[in-house]
Recover the amino acids of this structure.
């Protein structure tokens, strides 16, 4: 079976540098959105009511039960910028206090315009009628790209929560504007909201050091990071949810549903005709978050660092190309959903077959909902079923090898995928035969 030439960008993806503590283990410039810490207004506020009666700011680390006081040792301590907490040569040094005050300055600018606009998008309230009583800022984790903070504001007597993603590292600063625009565009383009809605973006200048870009967006209440972890009861590897009230392992049924929803979300955002997709992403980076509910789970994707086509630009736009590209997307998806790092930062982990079962089910569920394509003679799912009927087990294995050929050879994922690819292709072929 022929398939198109594909260019994969940085197939090693993100190595999974997520630094939040695991619960239980425990000069002013005239530029729009640009302001300095010296320009922070007084807490009492003036003007259109946004600041009236505000009691002040409180700061927390990892959880709202862990306060940080201005001036204490942690306040003065530098932010972790990598997994080893080692400062890279030439990398700017920013303290916890710096980032707290930078986020505060971002929120207070232009008489709390950032908060007022975010509140008005979240609830049916005129932003000029917003009255803020107090604001809490909690640094949730220290990521390779961002230092995300939960912002909880008591507005008109009601708590409202948001996320502020602040980029301090070079990697984060180089990509945060692109991510803001991608999230804004995806929110406008797709009806299902699996990614956060974003409100405003700005920059804060830390005098004598650097500018910190950041944006405010939707906070997913009750959602938590998850990773493959060792279950001490039998030393098996299972999905552990990092709930601040206490981590817990998902049941096999919940685990299958989790992988199904991962695939559904990524396939939902895959564009059949432009080949655009969310890329890169990685479980080890904590890109997805989960919330347990009485009758199942809910899943969200909290970051979208890229949305692009990975298909060679010389590829045409015809039925065969569309279906070839879709198979490549599925194969890559089926491999990546099985990859994680133990505890998010440990050795590479490969999920068992339950991940593949869920992935294929979620892919097909999303495919059935795809709008018709003018390039295809029948619904997308029907055309793909016929296409798969012409594929062999060897075709899938060779496709997997072609994907690996474009993978970063030094990636820690390479030995895992190489070792498991043949078995994976056999299992995938068997599953797809049930749909075709």
């Amino acid at each position: 079976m022929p398939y198109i030439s594909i260019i994969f960008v940085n197939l090693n993806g993100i190595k999974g540098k997520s630094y939040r503590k695991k619960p239980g283990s425990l000069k002013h410039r005239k530029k729009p959105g640009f302001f300095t810490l010296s320009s922070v207004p007084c807490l009492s506020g003036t003007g259109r009511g946004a600041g009236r009666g505000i009691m002040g700011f409180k700061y927390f680390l990892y959880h709202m039960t862990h306060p940080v006081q201005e001036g204490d040792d942690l306040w003065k301590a530098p932010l972790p910028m990598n997994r080893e907490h080692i400062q890279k040569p030439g990398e700017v040094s920013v303290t916890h206090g710096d980032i707290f005050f930078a986020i505060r300055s971002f929120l207070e600018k232009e008489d709390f315009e950032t908060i007022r606009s975010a509140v008005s998008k979240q609830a049916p309230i005129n932003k000029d009628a917003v009255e803020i009583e107090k604001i809490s800022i909690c640094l949730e984790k220290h990521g390779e790209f961002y230092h995300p903070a939960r912002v909880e504001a008591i507005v008109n007597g009601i708590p409202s929560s948001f996320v502020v993603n602040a980029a301090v590292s070079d990697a984060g600063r180089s990509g945060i504007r692109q991510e803001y625009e991608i999230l804004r565009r995806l929110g406008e383009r797709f009806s299902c909201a699996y990614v956060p809605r974003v409100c405003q973006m700005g920059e804060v200048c830390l005098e004598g050091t650097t500018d910190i870009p950041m944006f405010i967006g939707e906070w997913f209440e009750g959602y938590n990071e998850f990773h493959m972890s060792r279950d001490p009861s039998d030393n098996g590897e299972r999905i552990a949810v990092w709930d601040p009230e206490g981590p817990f392992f998902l049941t096999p049924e919940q685990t299958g549903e989790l992988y199904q929803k991962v695939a559904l979300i990524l396939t939902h955002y895959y564009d059949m005709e432009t080949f655009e997709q969310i890329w890169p992403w990685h479980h080890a980076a904590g890109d997805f978050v989960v919330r347990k509910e009485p009758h199942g789970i809910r899943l969200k994707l909290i970051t979208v660092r890229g949305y692009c086509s990975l298909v060679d630009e010389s590829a045409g736009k015809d039925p065969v190309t569309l279906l070839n590209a879709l198979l490549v997307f599925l194969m890559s998806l089926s491999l990546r959903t099985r990859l994680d790092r133990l505890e998010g930062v440990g050795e590479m982990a490969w999920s068992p077959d339950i991940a593949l079962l869920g992935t294929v089910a979620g892919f097909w569920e999303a495919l059935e909902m795809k709008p018709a394509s003018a390039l295809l003679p029948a619904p997308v799912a029907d055309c793909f079923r016929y296409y798969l009927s012409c594929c062999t087990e060897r075709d899938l294995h060779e496709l997997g090898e072609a994907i690996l050929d474009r993978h970063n050879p030094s990636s820690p994922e390479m030995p895992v995928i190489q070792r498991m690819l043949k078995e994976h292709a056999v299992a995938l072929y068997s599953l797809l035969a049930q749909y075709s």
